[in-house]
Each structure stands twice: as structure tokens, then as C-alpha cells.
Model the fold of this input.
Amino acid sequence: MPQTRWQWIVLTAVVTMLGILWIGATRVPAEAVNPTGRPPSPDLGHPAPDFALNTPDGDTIALSDFRGQPVVINFWATWCPPCRAEIPALQAASAALEGQAVILGVDVQESAATVSSFISGVELTYPVVLDTSAEVAKTYRVRAFPTTYLIDSQGVVVEIFAGPVTEPLLLSRISELMGD
Amino acid sequence: MLPILQIGPLTLRTPGLALLGGLWFGLELASRAGTRRGISEDHIYNLGFFTLLAGVLGARLGFVLTHFKLYTGITPPGRALLSVFALSTGTETLWAGLLAASAVAVYLVHRWKLPVSALLDSYAPGIALFVIALGIANLFSGDWYGVETRLPWAITLWGASRHPTQIYLALAGLLTLGLLLRREHRVFADHMPGKRGSKAKAQVRTAQAPPQPGVSILTLSLMLSLTLLLIEPLRADSPVIFGNIRTWQVAALGTLVATLLAHSMKAPLQLTDADQPM
Done:
């Protein structure tokens, strides 16, 4: 152990130099900073797995339809109180972001009639699709409702929220994605 | 990974529970260390609580102020207010939280006239325990995940075998806690539970090695800095600055250098005859 002040200062200088070299040597590889080229996976930095599901009206919507703009995928169900509580925030964010980003609700394992009736009741205007077999929820490893994925305009997963989201949270994240 | 535990109608967020447990046990450990240094339990608990509260509120207020337009756009205003106080995470600004917590801590320490070095030493074991809880919380939530590896102790997370960086963090916290508690035992043996029989021996030991204020917190800084410098390269989700430099490594090196400089300030300019080894 150093005993005098100067010995400590020399040690500090050596540690600083070694530390800078270590940080430089262990910096994030360039290919890891740029996530393009990774396999699709519901993980941060990976391209979001594509899916195509029907709306309660029978139209088909695919995630890839929205490539070029940020997408918020919200896994939910009508019986889930926290999901119902966050719907006003999602609806408001959808209205505020019209034409710039998409909110996509994925209802899991419920009938078209149940979801249609709920959508009319709360005057929900953003697109909702039905994952009746829960295959997409399984692919996205959804463990609890609501779970929300934020996908950037290149289709890469950039954030995952377990639990309800708020309007400022969504708007701030999407603004950051759009470089605002 | 087990972010949510569903017990009937009750939804428990396991990361939050782990952090809460770490906080509670950490404060308990800090209060015991504080008592040994002549600082009251109430001061330790209250300072910890108000600093944390200021940090949380400051972080949220910082986010609201830096994203004020988002909140003014919400209608009706009642819902904007609910968003400000929403329990969900993600709308916090780290620097604002740190600033608010530091300001409140400095104010309270000054107001209650607490000895700074002894106070920081008291919190050191508690902070080490909280680091263990942080590792466990990250393991539950799947955050702070490692790069892919084929090592036998790899864990499967986010669809791949990965370095269990969260467990590395918890183990580093455990090692640090062990070092700090060992020092507490050595220096304050007469105040430790179950050690009362060896009071005379402890007094001799204490006389030989008087408690040096600031050593525990410097040990903690040193250990945590080294931990971050070494574990960060194994993380797959490190935040970066300047393109691809890991932010926490830079912070850790800064802390390490500050810690070493603080040690240097305690050392004499030159050795006297009394300092020379026999």
C-alpha cells in the first residue's frame, strides 16, 4: 500500500491511465451499437417479430404495414383493470401522434364480439387486432397484462414496459425516436 | 426472469419488492453502524428516507419540467395531474433526482450537525446490501442483461444463453458487504451482537487500530467502481456516450480516481520515524 501522499498520487495517475485504456478496449462493438442485422426477437435491439392478425371487423393488419414510423404494440384484454385504466392515455397519445406514429392494440384470447363491444363503449379509435390463440403474445413472451413494446421506425424493439404506461411516457419516448 | 408475481387478484412487481427489501434492510444495517458511531437511529432512518423521497420526487419533477409541453397537452387537466403522480416508472430524469437528493441530504446533514465521514461510513454497509438487492431486482426484471456466452454458469434470458451479469453484481455487493462487515467487527467488536464476552480484547484491538472515519465509504467506492469497470463489458445493454463508450465505466473511473485522491489527502506528505516499519 502507498504510504505517502505522492505515492498515492502516482498510484492514482497509473490507475487513471489503465482505466482509460480498459474503457477504450472494452467499448461496445460497433455492430452491437447498431442493431441492424440481428435476428427477429422480442428483445431490446432486435427487429420486432412480424405478425398479421385480424381486427374485430375481419380486416387483416400486419406489423410490417407500419414500417417507417414508430409503433407502440400494447398487449391487453378487456377483463384486465390496469389495461382499461391506461386506455385513455393510449387513445390520447394516438390522437396526438396521428400520422407520425401508430398505437396498435393486441387483444389476447377474447372474441371479436367482446372486443367490438368494448371498443364502441370507450370510443377507442386506434387499431386493435385479435390474438385469439395467444400465439403472438407467446412469441412476444408476454407474461402479464398490460405489456407494451415500443418499436422504432426501422422495426427494432427499443423499449418494453411491463405494466400501465402514461401519455407523457409514450409521447416523450416517441418524440425521442423521431429526433424531436 | 419473473417481473410480476400474480397471487390471486394481487399483482406483485418482484423487482420493486426486491428493491424495497434492499432499502429496508440497508437502512437497518446503516442504523446499526450509525449507532456504533454515536449517530442516532432516527437520524440515519430519516436522512435515508427524506433523501430517497427527494430523489424520487426530484427525478419525476425533472422529467415533468423538461417535458412540460407533453403535460400541458393532456386533457382534462386532472388526467395530466394523475400522469405526474403515476406510480409507473419511465418518466424520471436521473440527474434531477440526484441533484434533489444531494441538496436535501446536504441540507439535513448541516441542519442536524451530523459528522459527515462517520455518517457516510454508517451508510456504506447498507449501500452494499442495496447493491445485492439491485442485482436481484435486475434478475427479476430481465434488465442489465449480459452478452451471449457458452460458459457453464450462463443463464437463459431474452432467448439466449447469457452472462448472469445481475448475479455478478449481486455477488460483488456481497463481497463488498463482507469486507465492510469484517471491518465493523474488527473496529467495533465490543458493540457487535454476540461479542460482548470479548470486550477487553476488543478494547485492545480498538486501541491498536482506532476507527478512521471515511475508510468504509472509501472502501465501498473503490469496490463499486472496480465492479462496474469489470462487469460493464459483459453487459449487452450498456448505455453509451460518445458513440460506443460505456457510460457507467466512465462514471466508475471518475469515482475510482476521486476515491484514490481522497485516500491521498489522508496520507502524510512524508513518512516520519514513527511511520517507518520496525
In short: Chain A has a mean pLDDT of 88. Residues 66 and 99 of chain A are 11 Å apart (CA to CA).
